[in-house]
What we know:
Helix content is 33%, strand content 13%. Strand 8 (200-202) and strand 9 (205-206) form a beta hairpin. The protein has two domains: 4-83 and 99-171, NADH Oxidase (3-Layer(aba) Sandwich); 190-305, no CATH class. The mean pLDDT is 95. The longest helix has 19 residues, at 102-120. By secondary structure, it is of the alpha+beta class. Strands 1-2-7-4 form a four-stranded antiparallel beta sheet, with helices on both faces. Strands 3-10 form a two-stranded parallel sheet. The protein is globular and about 60 Å long.
Amino acid sequence: MSNPTENAQLIKRRAQELGFTGCGISKAEFLEDEAPRLERWLNQNHHGTMKWMENHFDKRLDPTLLVPGAKSVISFTLNYFPEKVQHGDAPKIAKYAYGEDYHYVIKDKLRELMNFITEEIGEVDGRAFVDSAPVLDRAWAAKSGLGWIGKHSLLLTKKEGSFFFIGELILDLELTPDPPTTDHCGSCTACMDACPTEAIIQPYVVDSKKCISYLTIELRDAIPESFAGEMNDWAFGCDICQDVCPWNRFSKPHSEPRFNPKPELLDMKREEWMEITRDVFNEVFRRSAVKRTKYEGFVRNLDFLQK
């Protein structure tokens, strides 16, 4: 007889061996609390041009529509906080994009974990997710006790802060779920106060259209002139709301070699960035999340920083 508690512990031990920072389990069920929040956020057009967020509304809230017969959602966190950061006055890249694209790294680990589950527990039907399908990863991670969703809308933990990626396995395997944790933001508004574009319009609500990460990554059109002088030198993504969060004083450098940046990324000077060629872009950002903007988008961002 399959033991839900023993199997849960077995999976958690293997997840730790694979380098995951955290592993939590939720029952695969409709996210009732998230449904009105998501609907309100979409209706207020806080997703901007990310029209794909409007698709598959029901699937975002019900994991059994993604994996028929799903019984458990296993959430994983993986630390990406770097040991070293960029130097001087160079245009800034979000820390998560320093090394190899996390989609590749986490997918490889989840594939290995799925093979382990099949070998140790038996034939299990399921899917791995890393930002690749309509899954509300932060909601599931919070539900499984891996942290709470902070006022900046990112997952937070008391021990590690917020510099980590999230991935999921949705399985038709019954596992003992973990209880959620509690919110520890208190009266702190550091993230809201520090955001130069006032993207965090109220606690726990981000208007993507004002977010520097959205403007430099997701937005394909020209960046609105109203943001000139407010980008704080961010050329790809933004870490401001995380950098000022008191809980991130507990962040420790990651131990994943694939997240290590190429030395030239950290050492490039401002003038080298501003004159970057397509060849240099392709070399420095090979297998990097920065490729998402393409060369033209990255140059657009750099040009906008000079306005």
